[in-house]
Amino acid sequence: MSKAMGSERIGKVYKGGKTRARREWRGLRDTWYDYTRWLFIWKTMIGFMMNLNNIRGFFRYRWMANYLAVPDFLDRHTEGLRGPQLRIAHTEFDLIVEHMCDTMTTMFKADPLIGNDKKLSASIVVFDENMMSQIMNGFPNLHMVCIQIPPVYTSSTMTQEGVIHYIDVAQEFGIPADVCPMPAAELGVAIDDDYPHIGTCAVQCNTTCDGSLMGNGLEARRYGIPTFQLPVPIRHTQDSVQDYAAEEIMNAIRFIEEQTGEKFDWDNYWKCMEVFNEETKQMLEWLELSRSPYPQVIGNNVALYRDATYQVAGGRDARFLDADREITRLGMEGYASKSLCAPVVRHRAILWGVQAQYYTAFPLWLQNCWGILPLIDMLSLTSTRIFQIGDERQALLDMAHLYQNMTMRNRSNGGYEVGVKDLWRFCESFKADMVIMYEHIGCKAMAGYHGIFEEQARERGIHLVWVTHGLMDPRAASRKDMRGEVSRYMRAVMGEAPLDPSLEDFDDSNAW
Description:
Elements lengths: L27 H22 L2 H9 L9 H7 L6 H28 L7 H5 L1 E4 L15 E4 L2 H10 L5 H9 L8 H11 L9 E5 L4 H14 L3 E4 L11 H19 L5 H25 L9 H14 L4 H19 L10 E6 L9 H9 L1 E6 L14 H13 L11 H14 L4 E7 L9 H11 L2 E7 L9 H14 L20
Parallel strand pairs: 1-2, 1-3, 3-4, 5-6, 5-7, 7-8
């Protein structure tokens, strides 16, 4: 073991149980830095639990137990990293932990079963999991809470079995077993009465599929508050739908105004969107680095963090812009020193399709085990438009553009051009020779493209590796199954051996 990347056999730290055999050794400087950030996470969590409402929330809601795995989550998402990449990861994930603690503190304070702050609850607008938050930039006196993120989205990311109970509850209620686990889990939480009863109204969206839309409709009955469903156009690339899309944004604004008594504040909206534009500019810098021979902000270091900045924070939380600028500084530092993200770079890959929520650390495994550099993923390739400031009509069109290009939606909806054709454009732009194609077995949205992907990848000489998963249910396709599909391809087709043999086959079936 030494400070050099690849000197540690990472698979050896897994011992088949929930916890690891030991922490990873990264050399004195990086190990000490990683340890201080580990302590920071514990400090944040302890501070969170010092709040009496949060203690009550921990014992009231079953899904709160998943957050005991937060330190392990950070370890999984920094495996093998050194230097700038390690610091980029902690800059991102440490802020995400803080932001989630803030969100849950607000939820529990407003919850009538816990804090019962009626004034706070009356100022909350409930959004669904995939709903863009930018519309709330015009309501500075209101709070936006994505109600499904703490119990479902983040829980399934923290622990691989985090939402299985709720999926089973939904199936016991009569939901077919082949439905996507995401809306099934969300509905299961509602059936189990595990959503806090908060908010004065709710806004939902026709996100990615009919299953999600129908789940939202059922959950709205459980919320018991007025709910507006935002019908975003499916063919979002067509000019003919843009006026309609903008009109529906205006309808949503009017709904919030009527339910809360607040008036949309254009000045605050412009202020927040200026911040959002600056955040987008930082993202564009990271993408430029990823097109170079020395990419820095890749894989896990962009996928989960981009969701938080783009969709949830949306320009309202200045901490994210500060973090973005620090990430850019670290990325430039790594580029200047020609720092690599893997011991050996064999392949440059685009990750396409929807990733498994129970294995968001999979991109790190690709680079540590096989030298496959996951440059960018489909969910992070959302809007990079710089929006105009000062024009109200254009602002509605811009908001409509954002809601049409939500995470998980902008590629699965919109047709062949965004679902297939854009993939090859990104492969060319990022000089990628490989595509890791996530195939969610419960999703019908992109299944019809399977043969087209295969045929066009062969025509372009791009290696296409299919990785089957169950999104939020590892019982259908385990983490080990996902790794096995890649390993078989790399050995049988590419004729390559792993960089770290200890990572090719190890037992994490009982790990967080």
